[in-house]
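Q: Could you fold this chain for me?
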Amino acid sequence: MADLHTTPTGRSDGMGTGSGDAPLSDLIRQLAQDSATLVRQEVALAKAELQANVKSVARDLTMVAIGGVVALIGAMVLILFLVLAVGDALNEYWLGALIVGLLFVIVGGLLAKSNLNKLKHESVAPTRTLETLKEDKQWLQSEIKQAKRDLA
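A: Sure. Below is the predicted structure, expressed as structure tokens.
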């Protein structure tokens, strides 16, 4: 009983017993074709998976956006309540709106200023990746030098 290996396309790779072994050039050509088929299949699988993931992420982002809008409406209602409560306590609703508005401007300004200061000290450059690339460059240069020495 001959033990034949099959390729992804289902063809025999000629690695059996007997005198019917294919020439080396045919085996290499078949390997190249099978490799190309495998790569195409992997790319198709990746595309299908990405499409499914994108649809799922889009659906989730839509729900997050809807939730954000609902929360924003709720925050606006609470701000209106605060304006009415302060205005009722002062018997002047315009003064209540002014006080609440100023409060939000002050809190927002302080948050923005403190985070702007933090941003000034942050770097967006991928420092770890740059270091790794420098190390890879040094390694490659040493490998090239070693190969030149071995050839000389």
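A (continued): Confidence is low (pLDDT under 50) at residues 1-8, 12-19.
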